[in-house]
Specification:
elongated, Immunoglobulin-like, three-stranded antiparallel sheet, 143 residues, 2 domains, alpha+beta
Length: 143
């Protein structure tokens, strides 16, 4: 019987399943091992960098707020329930915004929080120029 499979020239098309790379002695095996180690080290360094950036961002947030709920009380006012967390000795300011049905801004208010308490839970009235359909917390920052 005649074997119809063709043999490819040695080393021309890369490694084959039966090559000596699996035995750990060839230059290709050493190169592969170095690449895997280098990739692993770079991956760990990248994760460490992302973690460090995230931790520094979170720790720099001395004042953070959360809009719990809002209630449209009239065509010219919205009540906003705001919860703020901060260091007890820090003063901060939070900006609230109300929008009309078409998305245009109809009200904005900056609310200041003085030193003293680390957690402030407050209902704030935001005056509007037209009937609002939504309210949002734009952001909080330390003063």
């Amino acid at each position: 019987m005649v074997d119809l499979r063709q043999q490819v020239p040695e080393g021309r098309y890369g490694r084959t399943a039966g090559s000596s790379a699996g035995r750990g002695g060839s230059a290709e095996a050493r190169t592969d091992r170095r690449l895997k180690i280098t990739g692993g080290v770079l991956g760990v360094l990248m994760l460490a960098l992302i973690g460090w950036i995230g931790a520094s961002y979170v720790s720099s947030q001395d004042v953070s707020g959360e809009l719990i709920k809002f209630k449209v009380v009239s065509d010219s006012a919205v009540e906003v329930h705001l919860e703020v967390r901060k260091d007890a000795d820090a003063a901060g300011v939070c900006t609230l915004r109300t929008r009309a049905e078409d998305g245009s801004e109809v009200g904005r208010k900056e609310v200041e929080f003085r030193n003293g308490s680390s957690r402030v839970d407050k209902v704030i009235t935001v005056r509007t120029t037209a009937r609002a359909t939504s309210a949002e917390l734009v952001g909080c920052q330390q003063q």
